[in-house]
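look at this one:
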Amino acid sequence: MEFSSYISLAIYFIAMLGIGFYAYKNNEESASGYLLGGRKLSAPVTALSAGASDMSGWMLMGVPGAMYLSGASSLWIAFGLIIGAWLNYLIVAPKLRAFTEVANDAITIPDYLENRFFDDSRMLRIIASAVIIVFFTVYTSSGIVAGGKLFESSFGLAYHWGVIITAGVVVAYTLVGGFMAVSLTDFIQGCIMFVALVLVPTVVTFELGGVNQTLDSLNAISPHLLSLSIDANTGQTIGIIGIVSLLSWGLGYFGQPHIIVRFMAIKSLKALPSARRIGMSWMIVSLFGAALTGLFGLAYVTEQNILLSDHETIFIVLSQLLFHPLIGGFLLAAILAAIMSTISSQLLVTSSSLTRDVYLNFFKRDASEKTQVLVGRISVLIVSIAAIVLAFGENKTILSLVSNAWAGFGAAFGPLIILSLTWKQVSKEAAIAGVLTGAVVVIAWIYLPLGNNGESMSSVMYEIAPGFICSALAIVIVSKIKPANSNELDLMYDKYERYLEKDN
């Protein structure tokens, strides 16, 4: 890699650290300020922060890699994600923004659940916190793995050094600037990702002689590459179960703490429609840009007789081959932007849970705001070390690591978040049953050898679908057996309705 590429990356790193320092100087030194930005995010920052923290390294590595390997059949994941994100903005965003403020100004998901269900036993908080800490540590590790792969394939650094550099920069600005730093860097990173995912497939198309020539090249490689119904990698037809399995990725949005926490932090309900329009436009263009990068990239490397050892590095290879080193460095910065935006969000949400849901509730309930911020920073460090250790272990594909964590959150929290905001009769016991059922079904679906030849059931259907359905059923059945009945809940709902009327 040439020196000018290093300059691009150095500028990017300095900018991210500078934003972290800016947020540190301008943020209020309180738990709400550090962990939720004081609930004052603008619509554009909310939208791009939610999108960038959502998509992570799998947007620029996992999605292109899946398209490179399996062809257009992987687009079903994109369709499912777009539908899920849109419904999340419509159903969850406004209600969660209002309800979390009404429910004693809850600033974490376990906070909200305990206050919403008046759980004096704290059992719901403990279970929800455990799910967040376990799955987010795995999720964070997937981003660090992506960073390690990037530095290994682009800079010739050892994978372990790439892991350390990626984690080190993210931890620095997250540790110092908290939620506001994470959100502002996410906004910048979202802009970088957008430009990169429009630029790369466009240039590849020109290099191949236009759209028609590119499609002809793909057909020559395999007629299945442009088929939505046939997996080009295996040649097998994707049936209804397979399509439902891929579409079910969209169910994950309702239960992702690092995404829905952005809705809790937006400055007002009036700003949400603008955030939805910006966020969905960004997502649709970026997702299809990533998909075309993988698909058109396959045509390019085949035509040039380039041997690609890892299909998830197609974006990196194209950025090095087709662009001036200065632009190539910018494109590599886009991958780092995708990786870092998600890692920082996940670190902060896990830190929030450790601070508010573990330390504050079980060790020192009267901890000062300053102490809570300190504990939050220490928690960021602890979780990052655990994620680095995992990244040093078995090197799975980025998409597989993300899919496991995405399913865990989506099934454990998704049905409960939706029903807790839309159905008054959900009880505390039902909430606990829903979280446990969703998490257990996902883990069993991934690891138990219940399929043919002792395989896991994940090979048949993505684990989020059975997990989500079982969790929803558990909540409904238990609520019917033991419905919520509380005067306090009636008062909270009255307050919630007044809040909606006032802020709209």
